[in-house]
Design goal:
This protein has 107 residues and is an all-alpha fold. The chain has six helices and no strands.
């Protein structure tokens, strides 16, 4: 979730005057704005929201409280929306050609 937020914050601050003018942003705002600009598809927004929930599991107390122990499968499930976001930005963002798209986990 943090990687997605950092990536989108950088892209949006460079290319979107509305986001650039805001002092603070959050992942939900960035995802929704990128989607409204046509830069990412609805599935990326939806799955990134789920990843957002799981980013707090880096904190052991949160893992214990929720009784979840992330494993390799959890990481792989959370990684795909990140790759989808990168691929969508690569395909849809003006001027992004020439940059290699992200690889899927299976590549």
């Amino acid at each position: 979730g943090s990687l997605v937020e950092g990536l989108l914050d950088d892209v949006m601050r460079r290319r979107d005057p509305e986001v650039r003018s805001q002092k603070d942003t959050n992942l939900a705002l960035l995802l929704n704005r990128a989607h409204s600009r046509g830069w990412i598809q609805p599935d990326v927004v939806d799955f990134s929201q789920i990843v957002r929930e799981y980013r707090n599991f880096v904190h052991p107390r949160e893992q214990h409280r929720r009784r979840i122990t992330p494993d390799e499968d959890t990481v792989l499930m959370c990684w795909q929306p990140v790759l989808a976001l990168i691929n969508d930005l690569h395909e849809r963002l003006p001027g992004s050609r020439g940059v290699a798209p992200a690889r899927s986990v299976s590549d």
